[in-house]
Design goal:
4 helices, single chain, mainly alpha
């Protein structure tokens, strides 16, 4: 079980770095580019069969979900560089978040 937890933590590292950069990089477009570079590097180091599928499902599904949340007033962002309502880097972060979730489920499911 410890090995599974360690594998999950290793997969979380790129997402944790991306989250840590939010207060440090004020330019949303630059931050989105940095996120894309981190994701490409993470996929070069280790890529699994469903990673791209998970990424694009997360990217599109969470863009729509975030837009709905924001439109209903459930969320408010002060950084509104994408669709005038959210930061442009947010869907990219969600996309990679789906990759992490997909990998974690696979790790937990495997014997």
């Amino acid at each position: 079980m410890i090995q599974k937890i360690l594998k999950i933590l290793v997969n979380i590292i790129p997402a944790a770095i991306m989250i840590g950069l939010i207060p440090l990089v004020q330019n949303d477009y630059l931050l989105a580019v940095v996120y894309i570079v981190i994701i490409i590097a993470a996929f070069v180091v280790h890529r699994e069969q469903l990673d791209f599928t998970a990424f694009f499902v997360g990217l599109f599904a969470m863009t729509i979900s975030e837009y709905v949340f924001i439109s209903t007033g459930a969320e408010i962002f002060t950084r509104q560089t994408f669709l005038g309502v959210m930061p442009i880097w947010l869907p990219v972060l969600w996309g990679y978040g789906f990759v992490v979730i997909e990998r974690a489920v696979k790790i937990l499911r495997d014997n």
